[in-house]
Amino acid sequence: MIKASCKLFLQLFVLLGIPGLAMASGGAGGNHIDLTTHWVGYLSLVIFAVAYGFVMAEEYTHMRKSKPVLLAAGIIWGIIGWIYTTHGFTHAAEIAVRHNILEYAELFLFLLVAMTYINAMEERQIFETLRVKMVSAGFSLRQIFWLTGVLAFFISPVADNLTTALLMCAVVMAIGKGNVKFVSLACINIVVAANAGGAFSPFGDITTLMVWQKGIVSFGTFFNLFIPSVVNWIVPAVIMSFAVPKVEPATCEVDVKLKRGALVVIGLFLATIATAVSFHNFLHLPPMMGMMTGLSYLKLYGYYLKKTHKNAEDHPDYDPEKAEERLGDVVAFDVFRSVARAEWDTLMFFYGVILCVGGLGFIGYLAVVSQIMYVSWGPTTANVLVGFLSAIVDNIPVMFAVLSMEPEMSMGQWLLVTLTAGVGGSMLSIGSAAGVALMGQARGMYTFGGHMKWMPVIALGYFASIATHFFVNGRFF
Band of the pLDDT at 111, cuts 50, 70, 90? Predict the structure, then answer.
């Protein structure tokens, strides 16, 4: 994995050193300096490559991924600021970095609200109740394979693909138990389904959210990727389903109940999504403003839950022997606890990535890469390769780089790169957050090698989805 990434960065480094692709250091018009062939540019590339190497090795080093990219972002912008200051351009780097921070702030606030709602639904035992009902339903392993895949595909467009994958994996682990073959196949299916489901919704993946917030693709236009996304998942799922063991697992009876107000929280989340879409589509305001407004819905309802809260002992049906069944009523709902449980490492990671890529773009590298990929190779080839790159490197910096390049493309090509960046990570278990998380959750059963065995089948679904996109969405090209 790390060798592949180093090779990729080495190739980029060589391309950037080719005469004619980058100007020598000096004034590039106005108060901008082209540093693509300057030692600052080369050092920045090395710093980013090393930092991202640590990110990809997180499974082995156990160092949170936000730490190296935060340091890299500070160093890259620090040396950029120093060079610009010594040349008398005291505010150029400041203006550029403020632009990057504004982009991050919109993404941060949007995700913070989404994560808070997901945590609130988890606290109200919505996901646990769904999991228990599936476990106790008495499905066969093949039925569970298809059911978890379908649910992963349709839940991930609303909840993030990581949360969806973890929930479905918990079901698979509870039912499959020691059946390594089934757990491995089901986890691969879940990863592919969750990533495919997130590709056709602005809320399903960080990359689609970034494209929507940038204003390139409208909210409704994303749903034209529904059929290609279905193809991306269904092709490998059908083939893998024949390998699922024909076993009837033992059923288990577990009783878990929704906490008070759980269904209202779901309704408020849907209302928050509607508010964000309305703010963006009709009022032409950033979607994060609608999300922050929606957070107030949860805060006000949380206030109501807290004021009307009663301990289990005060309930007329209180039974000391079954007190654990009413554990959810012991502690009152606290919305700030849900805020605190947001994935802060992920949010800080986004900051580091956006600032790092923004710094490389300010140096001039993104313009060079854009020239190579989207002019020399053509947008279709470039966008298909974006998917393969997303299987090795996280799709967030890849998509942010594409958005920063702003290549002139048709709407069909923008939908294509949205699709490939979203589903390309399914080809390797390390290619998406869902895959990495499931390797930890199903340790020893869902592995890199086990996923790699089915890579040709997943790649077949990848190319089938691209062909489907050209066929059903040809009017956008």
Answer: confident
